[in-house]
């Protein structure tokens, strides 16, 4: 399936990608390059929604581990995603892409409240919609928020854009013999505990037959290349056939 075959996709971006080599916060050069990558997809006519994490600023789980109340820590993490969403909106609009931010936590001076039908209408009008503040509830990750929003707005694909070019049988940075999966089904991901996304997100996609593509965005233009099948990636869906890369 090529890029033009998809009519509406949701891109899940890791907040940690935004900090580049700075170790914290937002690297403006990185976020501008990501905006250019998203614009390449936008220019094909695909409708785009985005969910972005907040790990470059604050992670709720880490805060809870450090002694904060888990609910409070998660809300702090949600606020971090709003900061990232506003920064990405700015970068996209500088690249010539009309963009709206919708937040699951009301903050009307900064973003629209999340309203499903309004989000769909924005996308039908060729606006990219960035969904901020996760699900608006503690104990749910931005991966789960991405799966939820993708299902709600009727996406053809959930694309997880990360530092790794797909799903491996083990951490490829720690295990040189790790096997790359070209294709794997949802149940195998859960049974093998491959940790590409949390189990709630995987289960939600499986139950609603929403395929997930996992690819790297460390190289410019990789999002569109993955959608066209020319960049290394892993496809996760309900099909039982399992294919491995040549090094399997």
What does this structure look like?
With 248 residues, the protein is of the alpha/beta class. It has one domain (3-244): Acetylglutamate kinase-like (Carbamate kinase, 3-Layer(aba) Sandwich). The chain contains 8 helices and 11 strands. Strands 1, 2, 3, 4, 5, 6, 7, 8, 9, 10 and 11 form an 11-stranded mixed beta sheet that branches. Strand 1, helix 1 (28-42) and strand 2 (47-52) form a beta-alpha-beta unit. Helix 1 crosses helix 3 (70-94) and helix 5 runs parallel beside helix 7 (199-207). The longest helix has 25 residues, at 70-94.
Per CATH, the class reads Alpha Beta
Kindly report the name of the CATH homologous superfamily: Acetylglutamate kinase-like
Order of helices and strands: EHEHHEEHEHEEEHHEHEE
- Number of beta strands: 11
Assign a percent range to the helix content.
25-40%
Instruction: Please give the domain count.
Output: 1
Distance between the termini: 24 Å
Work out the radius of gyration. 17 Å
**How big a fraction of the residues is strand?**
15-25%
Secondary-structure class: alpha/beta
Shape: globular
* Major pleated sheet: 11 strands, mixed
CATH architectural label: 3-Layer(aba) Sandwich
Number of helical regions? 8
Mean pLDDT: 92
CATH topology: Carbamate kinase
The residue ranges in which pLDDT falls below 50 over 5 or more consecutive positions are 242-248
